[in-house]
Write a structure and sequence with these properties.
alpha+beta, 3 strands, Arc Repressor Mutant, subunit A
Amino acid sequence: MGYSYTDYVPLMKAMSDETRLEIIDMLSAGEMCACEILEEFSISQSTLSYHMKILSESGLVNARRDGAWMRYTLNRDRMDHIIVFLTSITSKNQDCIKRKC
């Protein structure tokens, strides 16, 4: 299966922050309002918005407006793609494009 490493860089960058990893973990339980996520951290609303923007723009998280608040869910399809990609590049693979014979 052919992959473009470049396509996965934004995803890896989005997941390279402890707060964002915690948010992903929280969202694994289901949809959450920004206000519920904010209660779990000692950060400002603008800092949460920054993290959620990165997660949303990377495609890891889906966002929808609900009145004054945003509600977030994991993009399970995107998560599945990351798992397949990581499995592919970390499995013993004779077809590695970077392999020098």
